[in-house]
Amino acid sequence: MHTVWKGSISFGLVNIPVRMFTATEDRDIRFRQLHKECHTPIRYSKVCPTCDREVASDEIIKGYEYEKGNFVMIQDEDLDKIAPETKRAIEIVDFVQLSEIDPIYFDKSYYLSPQETGEKAYSLLRVALQQTGKIAIARITLRNKESLAVLRIYQNGMVLETIFYPDEVRSLAQVPALPQADAPLVESELAMAIQLVESMSRPFHPEQYQDTYRQHLQELITKKLEGKEVATAPSAPRANVIDLMQALKESLAQAEAPQELATKETNENRDIVERYPEPRPIAQNPKKKSKASTTAATTKLTPDTSTTSVTKALRRKKTQTPNAKS
């Protein structure tokens, strides 16, 4: 059993070192909510509806809503200033009768056991409570919150139970449609009711009470497991791998783009040259040069010439060739 708190019981000049353990546990069978299509557990995110994005933990602060939509900002430093003094002690302030406390006040139960040097004092307080029929009212600080508690005997040990403060218990007057306490009753009906209560009365043995719904639910789950009526959630994708692959694909595409463009331009130039080949030199008259020959001689193509310039020059050669022959 896991120790949830260590400290001491103090009353008067007596100090009893003790350890505290959670006495109860929630045994409800809980379900996860899954996506119907792929059986993946649904994830809940903290989203700001104004900014329309998920909010990280370091972006969240505390606020008290004193009226609808209006808040008082509370910083962690503000809470630290008013935090109760951390005491590793269960400080007993009074001793009362257990019958004086209505069960509605009880909240959560914890077992107490003595530490190595507290066995004698622990036993002394337990026997004193047993013989006087009293329980102790105490204060204890748990999780930076001061709580009211009672210390009482349970079998051969002691239990600490946190209890609600009076203003935490709602008034019965708030419950609607309650009958009057002095509502008239038929005597014969009351006698039969009392007789029924007496006939059903017996000593309390908690082990005879079972959570039948939980038992049936566990049987249902077991049957489905045996019948292989199960589903396995798909493995969560690794975001960093996806991002890396995407980055590699984009980098590869960028690297290939200039090469593809250069190949495209080269193919276009080759196609133009093949369709419009450069004409053969025409026999020149030594005394007189033709205009076409001069034009052909002075038209030179360089590697830096653009595709458009190449096309125009080649077309010009093709259209000028017949004139030269004539």
UniProtKB/TrEMBL annotation:
Basic and acidic residues composition-biased segments: 262-278
GO biological process, one term: double-strand break repair via nonhomologous end joining
Domain Ku: 52-180
Keyword terms of this UniProt record: DNA damage, DNA recombination, DNA repair, DNA-binding
Compositionally biased intervals (Low complexity): 292-312
GO molecular function, one term: double-stranded DNA binding
UniProt-annotated stretches for the region Disordered: 255-326
Pfam families in the cross-refs: Ku (PF02735)
Listed InterPro entries: DNA_bd_Ku70/Ku80 (IPR006164), Prok_Ku (IPR009187), SPOC-like_C_dom_sf (IPR016194)
Superkingdom of source: Bacteria
PANTHER family hit by this protein: NON-HOMOLOGOUS END JOINING PROTEIN KU
Described function: With LigD forms a non-homologous end joining (NHEJ) DNA repair enzyme, which repairs dsDNA breaks with reduced fidelity. Binds linear dsDNA with 5'- and 3'- overhangs but not closed circular dsDNA nor ssDNA. Recruits and stimulates the ligase activity of LigD.
Family statement drawn from the similarity comment of this UniProt entry: Belongs to the prokaryotic Ku family.
Quaternary structure and partners: Homodimer. Interacts with LigD.
Name the record gives this protein: Non-homologous end joining protein Ku
Organism: Brevibacillus laterosporus LMG 15441
Gene name as annotated: ykoV
